[in-house]
Amino acid sequence: MAKILVIDDEPIPCRMLHHFLTGEGHEVRTALDADEAVQVARDFRPDLLISDWLLKDKTGLEVALAVRDELPEARVIFTTGLPATVVADKARAASNVSVLEKPFDLESLAAAIRSSMRAANVGEC
Question: What pTM was computed for the model?
Answer without folding.
Answer: 0.90
